[in-house]
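Hi P.,

Sorry for the delay on this. The queue was packed all week, but I finally got your sequence through. Input first:
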Amino acid sequence: MGVSPDSVAAHQKFKQKHNLSVKLLSDPSHQMLEAYGAWGIKKMYGKESAGVIRSSVLIDPQGMVRMVWPKAKSSGHARQVLDALSGLAK
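Then the structure:
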């Protein structure tokens, strides 16, 4: 699942545009994002602003957090997650 402060309508449009099947959750109050440490101060080009900190959390079927990537980079991250899932399945 993906979580962002965007509206449900914006998520639907994004899913259609990119042909995604993943569930996207809307969190305009940042409650869930803050609970997972995915909302905070970011620096871009030397300027600080509050926003979504791209991160990933691997949660098992029992609801236990098994792995956290606090500053996930898009390049190679999918492989990291798949490798972690494979390790848990053993």
